[in-house]
Design brief:
Belongs to the LysR transcriptional regulatory family. The protein has about 300 residues and is α/β, with parallel strands linked by helices. The chain has three domains: about 80 residues, Winged helix-like DNA-binding domain superfamily/Winged helix DNA-binding domain (Arc Repressor Mutant, subunit A, Orthogonal Bundle), CATH 1.10.10; about 100 residues, D-Maltodextrin-Binding Protein, domain 2, CATH 3.40.190.10; about 100 residues, 3-Layer(aba) Sandwich (D-Maltodextrin-Binding Protein, domain 2), CATH 3.40.190. Helix content is about 40%, strand content about 20%. The strands form two sheets. Strands 3, 4, 5, 6, 7, 8, 9, 10 and 11 form a nine-stranded mixed sheet that branches. A two-stranded antiparallel sheet has the order 1-2. Strand 3, helix 5 and strand 4 form a beta-alpha-beta unit. The protein is elongated and about 75 Å long.
Length: about 300
C-alpha cells in the first residue's frame, strides 16, 4: 500500500468511530456531517477490504480487524499530536484544549472549584471533564488517549505511566450527634464494637482501614457498603452506625449532616492519592501546565514563618 495515496484524515475518522461507537457522535466530535463520516468509512472499508464496523443495537461495533488496527492508529495519531505540541507555541490566553481526568467521589468536589478559580481567568480555552474510570482501565485509557490524567491511590503501572503525590490526608470517624456510645472522641475498642458504613466504588474488597485492622488481627462489622460519601454521612446521621473517611472528604460530604467528626483511632493511617499521566505528555506544555496547577491546588498550606 502506497502511503502517499492514502488520505491520513481517514484514520482520524476511524479513531473517532471506534471510540464513540457512533457515526453521528463521531461527526459531532470532528465537526463533520453524518454523510461525510459515512463516506470516509466507506473509503476505509475499501482500503482494508473489511467492514471495520458493523451496526448492532448499541451502535457501531468494531470488527476483529478494527480492534487490531486501533492500537497502531492511536499510537500514530498520538505521536503526531505530540510532535505538533512540541513545536507549537503555548499561549495560555489562546490555547484551546480539552482534558479528561479520572477521579472519584468526592475528589472532584475537592479539586475542581479551586482549580477552576485558579485557571479560569488565565486559560479561558481550557476545559476539563472529570470522569470515573475503573482502576484496571487507568493505564490502558492513558495509553489510548481517552484519559489525559488520573487521580487514584497507588497502583501498579508500567514505566510509561508517570505519577506524583497529590494528597496525603488523615482519616476521621463520623458519628451522629447524640450517639449513645460516642461523644467527642472514639477509642479503638468502641470503634470495633460499632456497626459501620463502608464507602467504595467497587463491589467488593477491603478499604484501607480494614486492611490496617486485618494486619493487626482485628476486624470491624460492616453493615452497609455504598458508593458515595454523602450517602454514608446521611446514613450515619439517622442511625448509630459509624463511617470512616479522609478528613478533607468529610468537610465536603458532612456539611449538611453535621455529624460528629472525630480523629480515627489509628492516627498514622492516611489516604495517599497520586496524579498519573502518560510519559508522552511530559513535553506537552499545556498538559504540563495543568498538572502543575492541580498539584499547586492540592499542596498543603505553608506554615507561617515567625
Amino acid at each position: 500500500m502506497d502511503l502517499s495515496r492514502v488520505d491520513l484524515n481517514l484514520f482520524i475518522v476511524f479513531e473517532a468511530i471506534f471510540t464513540l461507537g457512533s457515526i453521528t457522535a463521531a461527526g459531532r466530535k470532528l465537526h463533520l456531517s453524518q454523510s461525510a463520516v459515512s463516506h470516509a468509512l466507506a473509503r476505509l472499508r475499501q482500503l482494508f477490504d473489511d467492514p471495520l464496523f458493523e451496526r448492532n443495537s448499541r451502535g457501531m461495533a468494531p470488527t476483529p480487524l478494527a480492534r487490531i488496527l486501533i492500537v497502531d492508529v492511536r499510537n500514530a495519531l498520538q505521536s503526531m499530536e505530540c510532535t505538533l505540541q512540541k513545536t507549537a507555541r503555548f499561549d495560555l490566553s489562546t490555547t484551546r484544549r480539552h482534558f479528561a481526568i479520572a477521579m472519584g467521589d468526592p475528589f472532584d468536589s475537592l479539586l475542581l472549584p479551586p482549580l477552576l478559580r485558579r485557571i479560569g481567568p488565565a486559560a479561558p480555552g481550557i476545559s476539563i471533564e472529570a470522569i470515573y474510570s475503573d482502576r484496571r482501565r487507568v493505564e490502558p485509557a492513558l495509553l489510548d488517549g481517552s484519559l489525559d490524567m488520573a487521580i487514584d491511590v497507588l497502583i501498579s503501572t508500567s514505566p510509561d505511566v508517570v505519577h506524583a503525590p497529590v494528597l496525603s490526608e488523615p482519616l476521621v470517624v463520623l458519628a451522629r450527634q447524640g450517639h449513645p456510645d460516642i461523644d467527642g472522641s472514639v477509642d479503638l475498642d468502641t470503634y470495633l464494637k460499632q456497626a459501620h458504613v463502608q464507602v467504595s466504588s467497587r463491589r467488593r474488597g477491603l478499604s484501607i482501614e480494614d486492611i490496617s485492622l486485618s494486619r493487626a488481627g482485628m476486624t470491624r462489622q460492616v453493615r452497609v457498603r455504598c458508593q458515595r460519601y454523602a450517602a454514608a454521612c446521611r446514613i450515619v446521621s439517622e442511625t448509630d452506625m459509624l463511617t470512616t473517611m479522609p478528613a478533607c472528604f468529610a468537610r465536603i460530604a458532612n456539611q449538611a449532616m453535621q455529624n460528629q467528626v472525630l480523629p480515627a483511632p489509628f492516627p498514622s493511617l492516611r489516604l495517599e492519592l497520586f496524579l498519573y499521566w502518560h510519559v508522552r505528555s511530559d513535553n506537552d506544555a499545556a498538559a504540563r501546565w495543568l498538572r502543575e496547577q492541580i498539584l499547586a491546588c492540592m499542596a498543603p498550606p505553608q506554615e507561617p514563618q515567625h
